[in-house]
TrEMBL record:
The chain crosses the membrane at residues 25-48, 60-81, 88-107, 113-130. This is DoxX family protein. InterPro entries: DoxX. Keywords: Membrane, Transmembrane, Transmembrane helix. It is found in: Membrane. It comes from the Bacteria. The keyword Iron does not apply. It is a multi-pass membrane protein.
Length: 145
């Protein structure tokens, strides 16, 4: 019986699919972060972009088109986190987006400590992308048929 369990665990790790508890933790994070990026981060950039640009500090002026593009990317990433086939790609995209946000905070806004939160999010998104990496190959295989 021990051999069968070891074999099952080994094959689970080879395919790159997380275990039961890890899967639940990942889905909880994906849903919470997805809702955060849809409602609190990307949503306001799409609903009230003019207010955000008017209230921005002088050293952090972002063109309206770029602000809307970032909002669309955040909302799309938030939705993608909650779609099983897209979760790894969405997490990878949001990881890149949050690293760029941290760079903006550190170098353009001159507030390097404000860049810590986006870097923590980037690490979480990178972990989600790594754990969900099997969905990328599944998606590639389903598209190539």
């Amino acid at each position: 019986m021990t051999t069968a369990n070891s074999t099952a665990e080994f094959s689970n790790n080879v395919t790159g699919r997380p275990g039961k508890v890890r899967n639940r933790v990942l889905w909880t994070l994906q849903i919470l972060l997805g809702l955060f990026f849809i409602i609190a981060s990307g949503g306001p950039k799409l609903v009230i972009p003019n207010t955000l640009t008017e209230n921005a500090p002088e050293n952090l002026t972002i063109p309206l088109g770029l602000l809307i593009f970032i909002g669309v990317a955040e909302v799309a990433g938030g939705i993608g986190l909650m779609v099983p086939r897209l979760s790894a790609l969405a997490a990878a995209g949001l990881s890149v987006l949050t690293v760029l946000a941290a760079g903006t905070q550190a170098f353009i806004a001159d507030k390097p400590l404000m860049g810590i939160f986006p870097l923590v999010l980037a690490a979480i998104f990178a972990w989600i992308a790594y754990e969900r990496r099997a969905t990328i190959t599944d998606l590639r295989n389903s598209l190539s048929r």
